[in-house]
């Protein structure tokens, strides 16, 4: 809960104002969605993700774009995780992290979820101003920056008692 609050504040106060090379925007708050326990019912995950996105929208003046992107990312997180985890029967009580999934699987998971989120948020935004090369650059650079940030956050928030696959 404290980490969620810290990431929301960091996103709203600092990271929303960071735009590297005019294209890369870090989205640290999606780490919370990625780390939700897989045992949570989908309704809770969707509600939490929607509210998380809505909070970011309120403070970023983005009119529901983050709420939509967070909700879709929440729907897709379990199917995406299944792509990279070989033993699906052990996914039940797992909290996705580098420690529990292993480095390779977690990095693939983080890259894919970052790509999904960044693609959604920038495509939604591009409906008003469309430049395909800028759109692709923003998606790729923001995905890479967000993934790097997610991996750093995960390394900092190590929980040694987590179940490993």
Task: Describe the model.
By secondary structure, this protein is an all-alpha fold. It is globular. It has seven helices and no strands. Helix 3 packs across helix 4 (65-84) and helix 4 (65-84) runs antiparallel to helix 6. It has one domain (2-156).
**What's the total number of strands?**
0
Structurally, how many domains make up the residues?
1
Oligomer: single chain
Structural class: mainly alpha
- Count of helical segments? 7
Low-confidence parts lasting 5 or more residues at pLDDT below 50? none
Please tell me the overall pLDDT: 86
Helix share bin: 55-70%
Overall outline: globular
Please outline the major beta sheet: none
Q: What portion of residues belong to β-strands? A: under 5%
Radius of gyration: 15 Å
- First-to-last CA distance: 25 Å
List keywords for this structure.
165 residues; 0% strand; globular; single chain; mainly alpha
Briefly characterize the structure.
The protein is mainly alpha-helical.
Write the layout of secondary structure elements.
Blueprint: H1 2-13, H2 30-35, H3 42-60, H4 65-84, H5 98-101, H6 103-126, H7 132-156
Helix pairs in contact: 3-4, 4-6, 6-7
